[in-house]
Amino acid sequence: MKTIPEGAATIVWCAVNKQLDGKGGVYCENVDIAQAVPSDNPSGPGVKPWAVNPEYAEQLWQLSESLIGIKFPD
């Protein structure tokens, strides 16, 4: 369990850290960029493969547009 300042630290770090300039779509945790971990990795730090899968991202985008009834320009 984290305190409120500990919980907010990564969000603040992401907002102001120059290390992330020009990098979109990265996952961050514990005041750093999250490392990729295998899908069978037990719960813990890291980002699973499906979270960074571009095909899944496109499917989610299409579903989201259809659910809200708005098509955004490409």
Question: What would the average pLDDT be, to the nearest integer?
Answer: 92
| E-strand count | 0
What spatial form do the alpha-carbon principal axes imply? extended
The secondary-structure class comes to mainly alpha
- Compressed to H and E, one letter per element, the order equals HH
The N- and C-terminal alpha carbons lie at a distance of 40 Å
**Helix fraction?**
25-40%
Percent of residues in beta strands: under 5%
Low-confidence stretches: none
> What is the number of helical segments per DSSP (H or I, 4+ residues)?
2
Major pleated sheet: none
Rg, alpha carbons? 15 Å
Total domain modules: 1
Protein name: Short-chain dehydrogenase
Organism: Paenibacillus oryzisoli
Describe this structure as you would to a colleague.
The chain has helices at 4-16, 54-68. It is an all-alpha fold. It has one domain. It is extended. The chain starts with a helix and ends in a 6-residue tail after the last helix.
What is shown here, in short?
This is Short-chain dehydrogenase. With 74 residues, the protein is mainly alpha-helical. The chain contains 2 helices and no strands.
Question: Which labels suit this protein?
Answer:
2 helices, extended, 74 residues, mainly alpha
Question: Secondary structure elements and their pairing?
Answer:
Elements: H1 4-16, H2 54-68
